[in-house]
C-alpha cells in the first residue's frame, strides 16, 4: 500500500497551459448559454485584459475552441470570433476516424445501432405523447408518398429512425445514436447507388416500411416490450440486407 501511495505521489501532475484555462472558461460560457449562437466574442484587447494574458495566448485558446467547432474565426480587419452551437456532427466525424483506425467492421457498427435504437423504441412507446404520435404518423405518410423514389425514400427512412431515438427523450442515447448514424447513413447511401430500384431493393424497402408502420401502432398502444422487440427484429433484417455486399466490410472501406 505504501509503495502504491509513493508511486502516485511521484507521478508528475500536468499543469494546464494558460491558453487551455482561457479556453475552458470561454467553453463554459458557451455551453451555459452565456454566449449565444452567432454572437461575436468581445474584442481581443478586452479578453486579454479580462484574462490577463498575451495576444498569442488568447489566440492559442481560440485555436482550441475552433478545433472543437465552438467558435469560428474570421481573419482580417473585419474578422473576429463568433460562437457556434455544439453539434453532434463533430463527435460523429471524430468517432468515424477512431473506428477507421481500429479496423472496426460495419457489422460492429450495426450491432451498436441495435443496442441503442431498440430500447429507444420501447422508451418511446412507454412515454409517448399525442404530439409524438402525430409526428411518427406524418413521417410514415411521407415515406409512403416517396416509395417510388429510392433516394428520397431512403432519406425519409433514415429520418424515421432518427425520430424514434429523438422522441425517446434520452439526450445521451440521442448523441450516441448520432455518432453511429453518421456511418449507417453513409452505408445506406452506398446501397442506393448499388441497387436502387432492383427487385431486392424494392422488397427490402417495402418490408422496412411495413415495420415502421407496425411500430407506430405499437407506440400508439403503449406496448413498450413489443415495440422494442419489433424494432430489434427490423434492425437485424436491415443489417442482414445491407451487409450482403462484400465490397465494404469495415468502416475504413466505407469512409476511407
From TrEMBL:
Protein name (database record): FadR family transcriptional regulator
Signal sequence region: none
PANTHER family: TRANSCRIPTIONAL REGULATOR, GNTR FAMILY, UXU OPERON TRANSCRIPTIONAL REGULATOR
InterPro entries in UniProt: GntR_C, TF_FadR/GntR_C, Tscrpt_reg_HTH_GntR, WH-like_DNA-bd_sf, WH_DNA-bd_sf
Keyword tags: DNA-binding, Transcription, Transcription regulation
An example Gene Ontology molecular-function term: DNA binding
SMART domains referenced in this protein's UniProt entry, alphabetically: FCD, HTH_GNTR
Domain HTH gntR-type: 16-86
Coiled coil spans: none
Keyword Transcription regulation (UniProt): yes
CDD domains: WHTH_GntR (cd07377)
UniProt keyword Repeat, yes or no: no
Amino acid at each position: 500500500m505504501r509503495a502504491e501511495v509513493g508511486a502516485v505521489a511521484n507521478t508528475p501532475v500536468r499543469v494546464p497551459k494558460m491558453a487551455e484555462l482561457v479556453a475552458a472558461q470561454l467553453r463554459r460560457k458557451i455551453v451555459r448559454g452565456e454566449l449565444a449562437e452567432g454572437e461575436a466574442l468581445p474584442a481581443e484587447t478586452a479578453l486579454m485584459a479580462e484574462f490577463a494574458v498575451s495576444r498569442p495566448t488568447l489566440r492559442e485558446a481560440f485555436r482550441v475552441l475552433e478545433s472543437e467547432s465552438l467558435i469560428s474565426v474570421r481573419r482580417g480587419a473585419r474578422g473576429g470570433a463568433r460562437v457556434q452551437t455544439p453539434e453532434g456532427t463533430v463527435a460523429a466525424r471524430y468517432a468515424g476516424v477512431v473506428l477507421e483506425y481500429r479496423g472496426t467492421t460495419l457489422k460492429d457498427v450495426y450491432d451498436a445501432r441495435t443496442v441503442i435504437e431498440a430500447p429507444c423504441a420501447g422508451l418511446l412507446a412507454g412515454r409517448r405523447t399525442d404530439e409524438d404520435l402525430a409526428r411518427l404518423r406524418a413521417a410514415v405518410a411521407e415515406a409512403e408518398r416517396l416509395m417510388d423514389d429510392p433516394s428520397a425514400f431512403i432519406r425519409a427512412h433514415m429520418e424515421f429512425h432518427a425520430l424514434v431515438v429523438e422522441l425517446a427523450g434520452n439526450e445521451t442515447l440521442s448523441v450516441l445514436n448520432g455518432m453511429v448514424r453518421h456511418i449507417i447513413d453513409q452505408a445506406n447511401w452506398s446501397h442506393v447507388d448499388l441497387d436502387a430500384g432492383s427487385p431486392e431493393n424494392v422488397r427490402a424497402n417495402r418490408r422496412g416500411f411495413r415495420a415502421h408502420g407496425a411500430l407506430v401502432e405499437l407506440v400508439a398502444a403503449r406496448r413498450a416490450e413489443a415495440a422494442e422487440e419489433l424494432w430489434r427484429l427490423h434492425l437485424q433484417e436491415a443489417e442482414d440486407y445491407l451487409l450482403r455486399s462484400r465490397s465494404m466490410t469495415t468502416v475504413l472501406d466505407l469512409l476511407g
